[in-house]
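Here is one chain, start to finish.
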Amino acid sequence: MDKIKKLKSEYEKITINPDFKERTINMIKNKNKKSYMTKIFASTAAAVVIASVAAFNISPSLAYAAKDIPVLNKIVKVVTLGRYESSENGYSAEITSPKIEGLLDKELEDKLNKEFKDNADALILAYENDVKQLKKEFGDETVHMGVKSDYIVKTDNDDYLSLDVYILYTAGSSSTKHTFYTIDKKTGELVTLKSLFKDGSDYITPISSYIISEMKRMNKEEGGYFWVDKDETPVDVFEKIKPDQNFYINPNGELVICFDKYDVAAGAQGCPEFVIPKNVIKDILR
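Its structure:
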């Protein structure tokens, strides 16, 4: 713990958008729940970078709709912008950053791509600083620590482009952070969860109720590990989604609500995703 605290002090000197600080603090607070099932020895440097990726949805410079764009180029695609690889004596890193091409709104396209690149650069810097510090302490002793960052195109059709950018950090055990970006190809808007529903509608309650019922069913029928029963779980149980909960639109046009590892279940459950039936939210959809 002393080593982690020391690294934290050093990496706080790295210049990163101050909007990320609040998200980092929240992640540190949530580690009590995560440590119930597994102990994660991840440095604060990695946490800062993870927070920087997640901050896209709350960044004032990015979370806006390109309302004046009538339609997007039909050839909107995601390609690989850059790839960084490093491996030596138990330390490893594979960091791949995406690049979006084909948006008519070039300002939006540039902002997205700059965010992807900046996040990758920050992650590389954090990894290299981690390795340097650990080598000072452990010398040539093998220390297993790794970072992998990549992207997955979840949906690419005439209506939506949904992209999953994830970071997997391993140090004894593993921790994964996903951030989803969804673009409405017909309007040119960056889609938020709230924007899918009618103004003033309560979308949190019906979605949360459905997810809780699914969690209980999976615990009973499939041997699930979801934290939904107060009598059986010594950690905080899941009660409702966040207003800006991670999500994407799948190729069938369905809303998929996503959680990171340890958010709502034991590590064995991985990163859970729940497809929300359209009849659950049909009355409040735009």
